[in-house]
Amino acid sequence: MKSKEGNNGMEADWTGGVAVVTGAGSGIGAGIARAAAAAGMIVVVTDLAIERAETVAGEINASGGSARAVKLDVTDEAAVRTLAEKLHEGHGGVRLLVNNAGIMNFGPSWEMGMAQWREVLDVNLIGVLHGISAFVPRMVERGRAGTRGAVVNVASLASISALPMSAAYVMSKHAVLALSECLSLELALEELPVDISVVLPGVVDTGIYDDSVMSRGKVDTGGRIRSLLQGMSTQYGMSPDEAGRIIFEKVQAREFWVATDPDLTRQTLTGRADFLLGQQPPQLPPAMVDSLRGIGTAG
Ligand SMILES: NC(=O)c1ccc[n+]([C@@H]2O[C@H](COP(=O)([O-])OP(=O)(O)OC[C@H]3O[C@@H](n4cnc5c(N)ncnc54)[C@H](O)[C@@H]3O)[C@@H](O)[C@H]2O)c1
């Protein structure tokens, strides 16, 4: 039978392969985990919150798929490496790694404490680096033995724009896009058998706004902006399962750029390109200034 995995644009056959998804106990990660299971993959549903991971894995198993839950904090380098080592041996190794876990916090940059900067960067950026350094060398080894793998980094439209009151998040997502580009170039340069995708989700209705750093007991100086974004997400957001299906399909087709809302992504890219070429100071649309002014400080 002709391989389905020869070139970019061709669908990878991952039936029976192992997928690892971080932060998969909720939202987009849970959606990707369900889509991977529906495609016949054995899914390792990991999350800092084990009870959530167990719920998602239980639902997948109950509907005829194959999943198991693992507690994994992506900021714990040793734990990520231990999981990668364990999974390397069985089932042809890991075919798909999805670095999805992410958190947000809000507030003017000058009011953010160092602990708040670090918490977001540790999960959103260093967590992704832990995944790459633990899994990619093993995926390369497995790929050379015939089972090509894929790494998916979940970035954001914040990777190609700037937003006030969210600098830690925006910085982390710009960095995840840059990292994904570099990684893809490096693997291609050496013709190594691992594909990279970077996901720029549109608005997806998840718990990220009330499930961020602050709701884990820390102080949030941007409560009002958080509720504004949460409201938009509830009103206009796509369901996490629909987002997960779209993402999985594009990753399986070995696309580098993965958008759940291509029109919004193009609009944001155009805005970014115009901004960079125009070399004017950063500016928000006037309507946004009206709704955001004074919103970042405590309350
Ligand atoms: N929801 C959106 O509209 C949207 C838009 C753009 C990008 N994203 C990105 O999508 C990804 C998933 O976000 P979501 O919206 O599904 O959020 P979510 O809050 O619903 O899910 C995130 C999951 O990550 C877990 N998590 C948090 N810290 C962790 C850690 N240290 N280790 C392991 N797991 C951890 C949480 O327990 C939670 O289950 C994030 O990277 C986010 O930045 C989301």
Description:
By secondary structure, the chain is an alpha/beta fold. The protein is globular, with a radius of gyration of 19 Å. The protein has one domain (18-292): NAD(P)-binding Rossmann-like Domain (Rossmann fold, 3-Layer(aba) Sandwich), CATH 3.40.50. It has helices at 27-38, 50-62, 77-89, 114-144, 167-189, 223-236, 240-252, 262-278, 286-292, and strands at 18-21, 42-47, 66-71, 94-99, 149-154, 194-200, 257-259. The termini are far apart. It has a 7-stranded parallel sheet, sandwiched between helices. Residues 22-23, 25-29, 47-49, 52, 72-75, 100-103, 123, 154, 156, 201, 203-204, 206-208, 211, 233 line the site of nicotinamide-adenine-dinucleotide (NAD).
Output the CATH topology.
Rossmann fold
The number of strands is: 7
Overall tally of domains: 1
Q: What are the bound molecules?
A: nicotinamide-adenine-dinucleotide
Give the rounded overall mean pLDDT: 91
Walk across the major sheet and give the strand order.
3-2-1-4-5-6-7
Helix fraction, binned, reads 40-55%
Can you identify the CATH superfamily?
NAD(P)-binding Rossmann-like Domain
How many DSSP H or I helices?
Answer: 9
Please state the overall shape, judged from the principal axes of the Cα atoms. globular
CATH architectural name: 3-Layer(aba) Sandwich
Structural class: alpha/beta
Amino- and carboxy-terminal Cα gap? 62 Å
CATH class: Alpha Beta
Instruction: Work out the radius of gyration.
Output: 19 Å
